[in-house]
Amino acid sequence: MCTAAGQDLVVIGGGPGGYVAAIRAAQLGLKTMCVEKRGTLGGTCLNVGCIPSKALLHSSHLFEEANHTFKTHGINLTGVSIDLDQMMRKKAQSVTGLTRGVEGLFKMNGVSYAKGMGKILGPNKVEVTGPDGAKQVIDTKNVLIATGSEVTPLPTVPIDEQTIVSSTGALALSKVPKKMIVIGGGYIGLEMGSVWSRLGTEVTVVEFLDRIVPAMDKEVGQQFHRILKKQKLNFKLSTKVVGATKTPTGVRLMVEPAAGGAQETMDADVVLVAIGRRPYTAGLGLENVGLSVDKRGCVDIDNGFKTSAPGVYAIGDVVRGPMLAHKAEDEGIVAAEIIAGKSGHINYDAIPGVVYTHPEVAMVGKTEEQLVGTEYNKGTFPFMANSRARTNDALGDYAQGMVKILSDKKTDKLLGMHIIGPGAGEMIAEGVLAMETGATTRDIAKTCHAHPTLSEAFREAAMAAHDKPIHFK
Ligand code: FAD
Ligand code: NAI
Q1: What's the ipTM?
Q2: Is the bond preceding 452 in cis, omega lying within 30 degrees of 0?
Q3: Residues within a 6 A CB radius of ligand 1
Q4: Do 297 and 115 form a contact (C-beta atoms < 8 A)?
Q5: Where is the Pyridine nucleotide-disulphide oxidoreductase dimerisation domain (predicted)?
Q6: pLDDT value at position 219?
Q7: Which positions ≥6 away from 349 have C-beta within 8 Å?
Q8: What is the pLDDT of residue 3?
Q9: Among residues 105, 86, 135, which one has the least CA distance to residue 42?
Q10: Where residue 221 falls among pLDDT bands split at 50, 70, 90?
Q11: Is the pLDDT of residue 4 over 60?
């Protein structure tokens, strides 16, 4: 065992929370080390989350377009087929390029990178066990816990990453399954379900509740559900899985109504368990500084990301709040600034969420259900009335989407925004900016938007919130 020179900050975990915090801390002059056990930087997001899933979503969407949409534009292709190995190689290239890029950013900013398992040994001491088992102890003024999350297991359906997979296995299947059952109609279930459905798999989503993505604005969620059904995804809502057995060709699930009732069986080649993620703190040594986790497994923090142990902070998926990469990044920046003696703040009401299906669904702020009892205006504008959406998409899929703005009746400021439609994930940034800067729907309506663009639908929804849109009644 050797002892490394003292640090101002040791960040444990090199995901979007940890790596961004480490870079910001180094920019602010703190001597910073980031400890990561995975072997590559970027955490869940870059390695087995956001990036590989978006790579497969994009590739499978191109396949879908080539098969179904191109001909409506007068482009006739024959013999369109999938080379799954190449699709996976393309995904791997994106991941490797980006994870190496983070390593490059560490070098440029002077962050030391310790490969290995980090464990808090006591106040101001972190032990790093390298891949070869060698241990070193780091003295540090501050520790930032950014250890992220892991898949929530479903005890009756144990994951083997072969036939019963988590998102990680679903991102790396070696062949296109004939039938897939997805347990959980949330972000992962719908994104990965869409990928495999587009590539030819018959996908059935089994959801415990009576609606998909339960936290989503109900009206938008219902539209989303209808569109996905049209895309041939099957849904079994209000259903619970009570058991699973392996069969020669895959898995047989036993399911029953969530409220209780007759059991039935469902067969599939592959089952994806996507019922949520839980904070990850295994082997971290929290007990050595008197810390424990709450009943959801989260490390408890105050508004400045401080735990109850002096000099120990925590951010990202391992603490309360949405498990999203950009939330972790923002917390990383603010935590680093606080540790460096500055002040910082995050507006948790203005953190967007995006489901990267086709069409995308994006949201920020309050849903209509959350505004019951509040005086609010509602402005909607359908993409059916947006010239760019109609021009781009001859099949009319886009025509089913809309932009919905919810604004305070008294102040006219945005309380929430919900989009289902093309480019929703990009357009939501306008709503987030409006919320952060306190813009009113009148301000947005007065802001010139280029024509013909999808973002004109945002402006028209803002017009509809306090008056009337031009291109729709
Ligand atoms: P993580 O990214 O989980 O990073 C934590 C890191 O800490 C890990 O690399 C882990 O190996 C390391 N670690 C843990 N313990 C130790 C230890 N003791 N010592 C050393 N290292 C340790 N979010 C989005 O915003 N957009 C998306 O499109 C999106 N898509 C997703 C798709 C999938 C399939 C999944 C699973 C997640 C997705 N997410 C997405 C969520 C996103 O990945 C997480 O919110 C984000 O990665 C959280 O960042 P983090 O830094 O808190 O934790
Ligand atoms: P999720 O929380 O989004 O969805 C889980 C779904 O499973 C919910 O609808 C829930 O009601 C349902 N469920 C729970 N227990 C169940 C059971 N026993 N049987 C059937 N259904 C059950 O979780 P998911 O999809 O696993 O993703 C985890 C997290 O990762 C997300 O919440 C999100 O924070 C993040 N993520 C973000 C993405 C993005 O930003 N585009 C993409 C993928 C993941």
Answers
A1: 0.99
A2: yes
A3: 12-18, 35-38, 43-45, 49-50, 53, 117-118, 146-149, 167, 188, 280, 283-284, 316-317, 323-326, 328, 356
A4: no
A5: 351-462
A6: 97
A7: 365, 366, 435
A8: 45
A9: 105
A10: very high
A11: no
